[in-house]
Amino acid sequence: MNEIIILVLIGLIAGAFSGMFGIGGGLVMVPAMVFFLAMSQHSAQGTSLGVLVIPVAAVAAYNYYKAGELNVKFAIIIALSFVVGGYFGSKFSLGISEVMLKRVFGVLMLAMAIKLIFFTKGSAS
């Protein structure tokens, strides 16, 4: 039962973050599955991608579309490219040790956090 509660919480939080910020899989689901469910990095990444197979973001994307905040042309081009990148990225990832994969993943998250905090373009609110 605890496992189901953890999975539901991961899904709710990832879904909320996805709807608010356009993120969820890599930033929320993968680390949560590794830390709270003791999954391997590879297994957590695979499971996160499995969630995306079902159009989980469709409802959130529709809200953005209705508000005029979804560039359909860009989304289609990126989605098609994402399929190719996802295929080759997964092949590459599965060939890396889990320790190295966790380190690379952590460095990527840290680098993105630093960039967002200190180097964001645009006007300050």
Short description:
This protein is 79% helix and 0% strand. It is an all-alpha fold and 125 residues long.
Description:
By secondary structure, this protein is mostly helical. 79% of the residues lie in helices and 0% in strands. Helix 1 runs antiparallel to helix 2. The longest helix has 23 residues. The N and C termini lie far apart (44 Å).
Summarize the topology.
Elements: H1 2-21, H2 25-37, H3 41-53, H4 58-66, H5 72-94, H6 98-118
Determine Rg (CA atoms, Å). Answer: 16 Å
Series of secondary-structure elements, N-terminal to C-terminal: HHHHHH
Mean pLDDT: 84
Instruction: Please give the domain count.
Output: 1
Shape from CA axes? globular
Helix content: over 70%
Structural class: mainly alpha
Strand content: under 5%
N-C termini distance = 44 Å
How many β-strand runs? 0
Poorly predicted regions: none
Number of helices: 6
Give a quick account of the main beta sheet: strands, pairing sense, barrel closure: none
What brief labels describe this structure?
mainly alpha; 125 residues
